[in-house]
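assembly run, all chains below
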Amino acid sequence: MSTTVRIPEDLLEDVRRVGALEGRAPGEMLTQAWHDFVDRHREEIAADFEQAAAHIRAADTAGLATHVGRNRRSRAEAAAASAQSA
Amino acid sequence: MSALPPIQERFHRGSFITAQYDLRVTRRCLSDDLGRRLVEDFELEDLYGSVEIVTALVNQRRQGPTGTRRVTPLTSGHEMWVLSYGNNHRGATWYQVTQRVIWLCAYGWHRSGKEDDAFNHFRALDAAGELVPAADDYDDQFRERDERFADLAPRDAQQLLTEARNAPGVAFDGRIGGEHGVAVTVEAADDLEALWVAVDGTTFPPDWVGTLFAAFAPDAAFSDWEWPTSTFPSRDLREGEWSALLHHSLQ
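ok done. output:
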């Protein structure tokens, strides 16, 4: 099954160029990129799961909140920078 | 197949939550324009009905993200909309689609031709780069969403799982963390159970993926999950959705 997604035009152009060099369609390139991303972050997500599961088993809601917000400050700073340029 | 339950409109901490976005006020606007002391346990609801522009924010912007008139000219190019209450109360609101939030960025008193007119105030803030939300505003917003997710996700997941187990093979649409749409299907054979979960990958925060899986099966191992998969047993995946599959023994 396939679907339609929206990506920035300049990124799509890059995907097309690289795809043309490798003889692959843009959709195939993006699917591969997604699987590469998951593979690269699998250990990180596994550690995330283990910590979250421990908090849930212990019914530690405050600990779970701290865990899900572990990257909050960097996300907030990125969002503020993005807001300035929006 | 069940329908996705609607998000209940309500106040929660610094937000008024609607189905499409949250309504919030920036810290700068609260302290400098509305003269409020910034406190850790700020509740937007406390200002509703007593602070005119906050009442207007909730009553008007819950109906739609924009007004009828833009704040112009702004050198930053931000699309700010005029929020009015009565003859003189004016606010500038900004719909930030990526964060699903409408911010009340500034407030002032409209006095045509006067130096301290609200629109002069808005333009001066814009020129100084102080009209849009700052990192502390996002920190507040994200902390409240994180806490809401942590509070609700384990219970939401288990409720959905119970419903799905009662009707094997049927897709149950629900919300996890009170916000994010999720679909769940259970298939059982002998003493084995397959649990399928699908979420919208375009809006679900990557930082919460591990917690999502743990909320459904806190005693499983992450390696038991097959993820990401691109199929779902009881319906086609929707645009932007990914799915995950957990096989486990019922014994």
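Chain A has a mean pLDDT of 84.

Residues 26-57 of chain A form the longest helix (32 residues).

not gonna interpret more than that til we talk
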